[in-house]
């Protein structure tokens, strides 16, 4: 399986309280049903928990402006204890299993724990107790 990094986003207060804006280029990784502007997908986190998300893009306007809807995103934010300046990263693994493209998504919620030699050090929020945070 080939893993593709879809995007990493540092969270702002509106991402915490409302919806997560999704980069337009990442829409390529999702198969929207014919005529639909939303797609549901599952992503696995660092502890193998499966999260259901709903990705939506607007029907009018100059560009699609995709977002993860609050109804699916908020539970993830709350249970991970995410705060502004944390970040999330989405990945897609794909394989060609006899020409039936199989896609598996993963999501990581991370917090910056330090700066080491001028570089930010990020860890999965599930590992924060190991750092005494």
CATH architecture: Beta Barrel
The number of helical segments is 2
- The overall pLDDT average reads 88
Q: Which CATH class applies here?
A: Mainly Beta
| Count of the separate structural domains | 1
Structural class: mainly beta
Low-confidence stretches: none
Number of strands: 8
Q: What does the model show?
A:
The chain has one domain (2-131): Beta Barrel (At1g16640 B3 domain). Strands 1, 2, 3, 4, 5, 6, 7 and 8 form an 8-stranded mixed sheet that branches. The model has no long low-confidence stretch (mean pLDDT 88). It is built from 2 helices and 8 strands; from the N terminus they run βαββββαβββ. The chain has helices at residues 13-17, 70-80; strands at 2-10, 20-21, 38-44, 50-56, 67-68, 87-95, 102-116, 119-124. One of its GO terms (molecular function) is DNA binding. It is found in: Nucleus. This is TF-B3 domain-containing protein. Keywords: DNA-binding, Nucleus, Transcription, Transcription regulation.
Short description:
By secondary structure, the protein is mostly beta strands.
List the helices and strands and how they pair.
Blueprint: E1 2-10, H1 13-17, E2 20-21, E3 38-44, E4 50-56, E5 67-68, H2 70-80, E6 87-95, E7 102-116, E8 119-124
Parallel strand pairs: 3-7
Antiparallel strand pairs: 1-6, 2-5, 3-4, 4-5, 6-7, 7-8
Features:
133 residues; mainly beta; 43% strand; globular; transcription regulation; DNA-binding; DNA binding; DNA-bd_pseudobarrel_sf; B3_DNA-bd
